[in-house]
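User: My instructor asked us to take a sequence, write out its structure as tokens, and then describe one feature of it. I'm not sure where to start. Here is the sequence I was given:
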Amino acid sequence: MRRPTRRPRVLLAALALALALPVGLTAQNRAQAAAAPRTPQLATSAAELTLTVPPSRTTPGYALHVATDQLALTTRRSGATVLATAPGDTGALRFRTAGAWQHATRVTGWSWKNGVLTLTAATTAPGATVRARVTASADRYQLDWQVGGTTPERLGLAYDLKSAGHWYGHGEAQTPNGGPGTDQPWPLDSGQVVHPAFGPASYYMIDPFWYTSAATGLRVDTGHVMDVAINQNTDGVGRFDIESADPYRATVFVERTPLDVYRDYVGIVGKPTKSDAGYRQYAQPVWNSWAQFYTHVDQARLLDYAQDLHDNGITGHALQLDDKWESNYGNMTFDPKAYPDPKAMSRKIHDLGFDFGLWVTLWINLDSDQYQYAADHGYLLKDAADTAKPCTVTWWNGTAGIVDLGNPEAKAWYEGRLKGLMETYGIDGLKFDTRFFDERCAPHEGYKPTDYQRLGAQLADEYDLQGVGIRVHWDTAAHQAGFVTRQVDKGTGWNSLRASVTQNLAISTIGYPFVTTDMIGGSSAQPAPTKQVLVRWAQSAALMPLMYASTSPVDTIDARTGQKVVYDEETTARYRQAIARHARLAPYIWDQVQQTLKTGDPIMRPLFFDFPGDKAAYTITDEWMLGPAVLAAPQLTDAPTRSVHLPPGTWYDVAHGRAVRGGRTLTSYATPLGTTPVFVKLGAKGADKALRALR
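Assistant: Let's start with the prediction itself. The structure tokens for your sequence are:
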């Protein structure tokens, strides 16, 4: 497990109601740790097996209690339960066979050898048994299990959510209330997550990792699609099912704080080795045409957009032309009617001070003049059900085949056309969209579906992604590439603005630290955002690592009607102020990027990562830490005031120019449109630089 060279011990508060908070080592714990055996020990009784892992100087120790009358697992730390499998008929270790769910029951045998506890158990399915193996180490245990006597369709673990306090992680969550576009519960158990196609080929930014307020965590090691349900129908259960009969492999982390669990996880999947975005891309917004025009874009509209941004001092490092520039999807040729002179368009954009970016995809529509060529040469993924023919997928722009990155010749063909396009038209960077694989397709010989996340990451790593990043996940290559991660499309209302905050917290704490909200103001073909939503979104994004913009405060088109949306001068001025604030913060943010490259810690993170003993921090949805010194609490509603929770310490209230004692909540904090609550923790690393930027 990776540890920073200097980290103070934190003594945490006691449990309060259902919120389980992590507990540090007391003097008595440390004395016990010094005297206790250093290896895991097993004790037995009539009702259970108890596997005890002693504490050490850097780990809290834990005990895993295995009930034997009906196989159930309860993890305790310092005598308190911090994670327990679901009780009763839900079943801890569960599987589906012949269309019905079954689960492990009575433990029928066990053995203990070389630190490995092996269990066998009967099940509710006649003739079927479960065999499980628990391998304990200092701050985690590995749980591997499988079913014998039948071939299951799915295997799953089920947990009692309240046993661990609150749950986080997952990434972009599908929910009954519109997630992830308009709803991202934080914590996850505060809403309902119903995500039946949770897998490595998903367009959503997800990883099979969850962590809790009790400083436990779960990582499922699989390349198969999962069905994840957290508090579905408010049942208080977390179900983590795999659509496969392969052995179920999971790691359960037991630590002192949620940040420690996160660091353990990053120690497995890897931290970024670099940032794919440079300083300028952190300092200035990127402007993208999508929410401004959607597919109703052409050369004249794009140049008018660029000119208006320039003339009104709405700065940015790049202007990207999004979807609908090709004559047909996959041709990689500009539509000559809409773009009569792409070279002149590129020159004009550069003359205005922007880099020029372009949207691309590996999906080639059937009506493209390149589709048959690619199919004839074997450049497309094959159909999983019939590998003699190309795989076809339906998406928002028609029906397409997908270039097979596992085929070296296909990859070379695609990249050659891509580079030729960029050289011909002076294109500086790319926005890769759609997915690199689909479960309806068969991977290339010698590859697995999960390999396509790595192949996509390696492809994208050759190009400047201009700060909008890419949506690859689930693979160590995606973690280590250091891509900026952009969220899934959001709506244009207040609910989407709030979801953009909690979603960034979710993504950045599953190992993707360079996060940006979806386009400021939202998209999703909804009416243009109101003045208040647009300004508040810009103010919020200014306190995040990067700014990704589209809806212009000076020239916006309502995609539904084709009519202009006119914002007043205050909107433009407030937007400019947000951009300027972000630019002033850039030196501080860049320092956080460098720190992340050393530690893997997220830049934008929940308050409880820095203040694990602060009980109130675990349910706050509209505040975050930007590095160790800046607490952002922007207004995310249309209310005139908001409450601001300040963790312990002394904070500088930027809006009012005063020092404030923390460990309390400021009520009725006034938030007129020109005020964005932001605080600097005095004495924190980087506080002086943050103060110079924010005052």
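For the description part of your assignment, you could build on this observation: The chain has 15 helices and 40 strands. Try explaining in your own words what that tells you about the chain.
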